[in-house]
Amino acid sequence: MIFAVLIPLLIACFIPALSKLKEKLHTGIFVFFIPFLIFLYFVSFIGNDFTPIREQYSWIPSLGINFDLYLDGLSLLFVLLISGIGSLVVLYSIYYLSKSERLGHFYVYLLMFMSAMLGVVLSDNIFVLYTFWELTSISSFLLIGYWHFKERSRYGALKSMLITVFGGLSMLGGFILLYVVTGTTSIQQMIGQVDLILNSTYLPLILGFILLGAFTKSAQFPFHIWLPDAMEAPTPVSAYLHSATMVKAGLFLVARFSPIFSGYEGFFIVVSVFGIVTLCWGAYMSVRQTDLKAILAFSTISQLGMIMAMLGFGTKAAVFAAVFHILNHATFKGSLFMVAGIVDHETGTRDIRKLGGLATLMPITATLAIFGTFSMAGVPFPFLNGYYSKELFFGSTLGLGSDFWSQAIPYLAVLGSIFTFVYSMYLFFGTFTGKKQFDQLPKKPHEAPIGMLISPMILVVGVVIFGLFPNIVNASFLQHAATAINSTVVYKEITFWHGFITPFKMSLAVVGFGTVLFLTRKKWQPVYQVLPGKVSFNHVYDAIVNKIGNVANRITNYYMTGSLKTYMSLILGTTLIVSLLFMYLTNGFAFNTDQLAEVSFIEVAVVLIMIVAAIATIYMNHNVAAILVVGVVGFGVAILFVIYRAPDIALTQLVIETITVALFLLCFYHLPKLRKSTDSAKTKIMNATISIGFGALVTLVAISAHSSRWFESIADYFVENSKKLGGGDNIVNVILVDFRGLDTLFEISVLGIAALAIVGLIKYRKNKEAE
């Protein structure tokens, strides 16, 4: 399994080279086989006898962070969606994106996202899951902002990242608390400690933090505002991230932790409330939109809310319905996003007000749209998979309890579904039937090339197959996913007709009222001027971001004065205050005179010379004199190392001090002469306070470090092992070369990078002067 998670990232490293061949062969052709082969690999796990599989790889064992992978029915469902829909999206993008686009960038970002999503759904370690979780935010930011020359693309990308990363950090807080309570980082081991978690005083915080991460990622009300703006991404991105994968990561998170929280009443209340409200609000707002992808964006928000609500119900019927609808939603919504992309690609616009009558010129696309929209609407036809899961949803809303909220849920479910029917009909009939307005279109419409139609065709075939044979994968696939969420779920055969029962009546009510509202849409459309009217969560987001930006600018402008002295004063002053405060709060001050060596006259003499030289530096009015006096301090330190019988360190200090003095002399030769300070008395007092205070801090830290023994000394380890492990008698050299070899390597690397930067700056300056 680890191969499946990491192979997209590894292949992404070669995409820039492969993209250079795009004139001969579209880069997407190379990429297509990656998700396709992953899909084929995981399809082999489908079967009635499937049992969970675990793989463990050591990563940071000292912190309990290992690369643990866990494949059960739930993760298998999501892996197949990620790889299967990913294959179709790549195939679709080959015809959607021209070779003039930055294909190398696009497919690198797409593979990065694919790997991140696979990591999210397969990780059993909470911190590994979080790592991949944030990688999905970063990669989606890059994909949404792919057309970075568009202001709306940059705005949508930043908005999605800020909101989802905010939720991700909250989720991390919940994970840390879970680790504190359970003492393990394994999700499956946490599930085995349900009673301990439910009895913890941290439970409300844990639940709140984790749900915040799930709600922001799955665009639940009121965090839904990022998803419509993310539609500025290319349509393949929308079809992949915003219908089938990324937005379902939050659903996966709730489903994965349901075995832990489902026994807590607050879980049912919070998740079901947010889910139902999101269902109704998303469906209601979708009818208001005029952009095809905006309609689909709000419809996605609504559908995600419905699934979230079912996970909140937590009953056997609700869990199975949620799993079934996750699969169904990926098929019809993925196909509709691709249809919207085809319409945009072939007409030059997504504005539904300019569209109409396209069925005559784009009959195949219109046919695909019929199946997608009517399935999304939950129209009771036996060949539409959306109806089955919608009816299961209605059934799951019944009998939840006798309180007001439980009794209101079925009515809210019907209300949200009515608007779902309206926007579905609005999407199809507004685009493909009615008055032809071809003269208003930027391009003359025509049917899309067959290559662009293959992917939505396959998804629509899935809609029909799961509609005609709803039980085809129940026992071998969906049942395993449902039991991973609720172990009591049992396989139940799905049928189209099982009597004139309440769920069927609810479906008829949706179709009836939905038809009336659709036919009279223009008459009641002004209601949007009242609700939401001028109120918008986007305004709240913009106000918060702008306020933070303004405050940050004021703070930055306050201290970014261009004065190096000011910067050093702020850095040293902050370090002084924070360090002293921390030492005080943690009883860090210690003074122990045991095991002190005798102080000789020569040591006192050297230290006094160093003190005099350091103080003399302040009063020097000549550059060279100041440098030489500072050099006295450095060479005095080297003499102390000699006295303390550390010749290697002394030699190192002598070399560094000599080079430093020489470099200072070269630099200061080109600088103006030192002038008498004109600082005010207040500034001088502040400078003296910082200088004396920082010196005192370093002295206190040194004394405290010598006097404190919080940990066992590592010196004995080096003495015993320098010869045995490092093969050297000189312990200091062995430490630097072997025990701290990586430190030395990185130090050299930093110096090398700095040298390259300096060379680059010199060449840049020469080029500027030549111009």
Automatic annotation (TrEMBL):
Membrane-spanning parts: 29-48, 69-94, 106-123, 130-149, 161-182, 194-215, 266-287, 355-388, 408-429, 450-469, 496-519, 567-587, 599-619, 626-644, 650-671, 683-703, 744-762
Recorded GO CC terms: plasma membrane
Pfam families per the UniProt record, alphabetical: MbhD, MbhE, Proton_antipo_M, Proton_antipo_N
Domain named MrpA C-terminal/MbhE: residues: 686-766
Record domain NADH-Ubiquinone oxidoreductase (complex I) chain 5 N-terminal: where: 60-107
Membrane topology: Multi-pass membrane protein
Domain (MrpA C-terminal/MbhD): residue spans on this chain: 608-673
Biological-process GO terms, alphabetical: proton transmembrane transport; sodium ion transport
Localization per Swiss-Prot or TrEMBL: Cell membrane; Membrane
Family: Belongs to the CPA3 antiporters (TC 2.A.63) subunit A family.
Protein name: Cation:proton antiporter
